[in-house]
Design goal:
Length: 345
């Protein structure tokens, strides 16, 4: 998928749109599937295993039909990534079980500063003052509309820390692996999905038993539950693909900001479809969050334009220096071994 290296604005919007629609759709489908008033399928970790199994199957078919190509990524890197990703899923489920909803939301909001800190440590990446300001506005807005009761305990706090760290590392790793091995988002996903599916399907039932006290083998499957599981798995394919697309094209921080936009969409749809209560506090929080997202989009555009202005100058300077060296005949280097204005690799 060479097109991912220089994505157009239209394909960027498509990636964002696919992620928002599929993520919100899967939340709504899972709400019906897992709620006591729905089908009471309370096996979240095993369901995630189903998601990755279907995603792996789609990837296998895609490779077999030649729709996508398969590039080499060392097995140890895939295993490491899968361990981090599955730790993220398990940690999030444990955090939600052991903590109050308010503290769970706080832990999710803390991912943006954690991702920023980790990208600074791992990749020496810096953010402008405008980007930092917009992130603060988004976090405040989402915090206002989602945080209610906040209760903390030692086990819950530890699980939340593990969940935040592993989720942040997983999202940074997606972008790093794509750049390191020049691999497309879908190709990377098709390599990691089988490993995640196998491990989650083996361990998921036991994790779910610990979380809920129920074993999936004892669940009485109905036709309605089966339909919603299939719907959830189908949406998961688009959700997983678009996650890799978005992080590969933009950054883990941008993906986190997008995630909070999905929170606003879920709250709004919950009010429209499920008669969920929407208070003045919720509405004010959503407005603040949306303003923060608009500021973030503007700040990223300003940063991109600034980088664009800097890059051509450095390239021209390099080319002029190479031309001067060629003219002077330094080192008697053959002309055919020199790439003017191009970086090797």
């Amino acid at each position: 998928m060479e097109g991912e290296k220089k994505p157009s604005a239209l394909s960027d919007v498509g990636a964002w749109g696919m992620n928002v629609i599929s993520s919100v759709g899967i939340i709504m489908a899972n709400k019906q599937l897992m709620s006591p008033n729905g089908y009471a399928f309370s096996f979240a970790t095993t369901l995630t295993g189903f998601h990755f199994a279907v995603t792996a199957l789609v990837g296998l078919v895609s490779n077999a039909t030649g729709f996508s190509s398969s590039k080499h990524v060392p097995l140890w890197e895939l295993l490491w990534f899968s361990i981090v990703a599955n730790t993220s899923i398990t940690g999030m489920n444990l955090s939600l079980m052991l903590n109050s909803v308010g503290f769970y939301q706080i832990s999710k909001l803390s991912m943006i500063p954690v991702v920023c800190l980790m990208e600074w440590i791992l990749h020496n990446k810096h953010y402008s003052r405008e980007v930092k300001l917009s992130v603060v506005v988004v976090v405040i807005g989402v915090g206002v509309c989602t945080i209610t009761d906040v209760k903390v305990n030692a086990k819950g706090f530890l699980c939340a820390c593990i969940a935040v760290f592993s989720t942040s590392l997983q999202q940074i790793s997606i972008g790093s692996l794509q750049k390191k091995y020049s691999i497309g988002s879908f190709e990377l996903l098709s390599k990691t999905a089988p490993i995640q599916a196998l491990s989650l399907l083996l361990l998921g039932p036991f994790i779910d038993y610990y979380l809920t006290g129920k074993f999936i083998a004892n669940y009485k499957m109905s036709s309605g539950a089966t339909i919603f599981i299939i719907l959830s798995c189908s949406l998961a394919v688009f959700c997983n693909v678009s996650q890799y697309l978005c992080i590969g094209r933009f950054s883990a921080v941008s993906f986190q900001v997008l995630g909070h936009m999905k929170t606003v969409c879920v709250l709004t749809l919950g009010w429209l479809l499920f008669d969920s209560q929407l208070t003045f506090k919720n509405i004010m929080g959503m407005i603040i969050a949306v303003i923060g997202m608009i500021i973030y989009s503007w700040a990223m555009e300003v940063e991109k334009q600034s980088n664009t202005k800097i890059t051509p100058h450095s390239k021209n300077s390099l080319t002029e220096e190479e031309i001067r060296l060629l003219q002077e005949g330094v080192g008697n280097t053959a002309v055919k071994d020199i790439e003017l204005g191009e970086s090797k690799g």
